[in-house]
Amino acid sequence: MKNPIVALLGAVFAATAFAAPVKDYGPAPAFAGIDRWLNSEPLRQEALRGKVVLVDFWTYTCINCVGTLPYVKSWHAKYKDQGLVVVGVHTPEYPFERSTSNVEGAIKRFGITYPVAQDNGYATWRAFDNQFWPAVYLIDKKGRIVYRHFGEGQYQETEQAIKALLAQPG
Fold first, then answer.
1. What is the C-alpha separation between 9 and 27, in angstroms, rounded?
2. Residue 36 host element (H or E)
3. How do residues 24-68 score in pLDDT, each as one tens digit?
4. How far apart are CA 165 and CA 162, in angstroms?
5. What is the pTM assigned to this prediction?
6. CB–CB of 86/56 below 8 Å?
7. Calpha distance 124→29 (Å, rounded)
8. CA triple 81-87-91, angle to 5 deg
């Protein structure tokens, strides 16, 4: 028979060993200066309170961004019914990436079904003080940025942060 204290400590360790660091980075800024919303009507941060929001800054010719898309799409599919809202913010690196038809083609080609904000003027990029492609920001149910990751990788950590935020009351 297992010692109940050892079993309890093991369960606590298993639940927290891979927990992603959650930190308060301040209130999430508005989706500012969006040229066009694709796959959605315009979204506002205020209307998303009570939901966990994943903001993914990407551009369709960035190989690193393309590498993260299967994970972002998977999180959307897995957690959308539990309160996760994924918002892709397409911020172009090159002038030809500003074309709405090019972005629409990429959305179709990659099978993206979640909302995509076309941020051609970098207003949302600047509002988040972002500097990288790809970049993921998690916003808690109170509207505060509590997690961010730049570049590829740390997929398990990001998913753990999503699960932890979805489990919080609010």
1. 35
2. strand 36-38
3. 999 999 999 999 999 999 999 999 999 999 999 999 999 999 999
4. 5
5. 0.87
6. yes
7. 8
8. 165
- 63-79 helix and 155-167 helix, angle to the nearest 10 degrees: 30
* Interior angle at CA 28, CA 95 and CA 73, nearest 5: 60
Which H or E element spans position 53?
A: strand 52-58
**What is the C-alpha to C-alpha distance for residues 134 and 62, in angstroms, rounded to an integer?**
8
| Cα 143–chain centre separation | 13
Asked if 152 and 67 count as a contact pair (C-beta separation under 8 A), the reply is: yes
Could you tell me if 75 and 160 are in contact, meaning their C-beta atoms sit under 8 angstroms apart? no
CA 76/CA 68 separation, integer angstroms: 13
Tokens of 79: 């957690």
CB 148 within 8 A of CB 135: yes
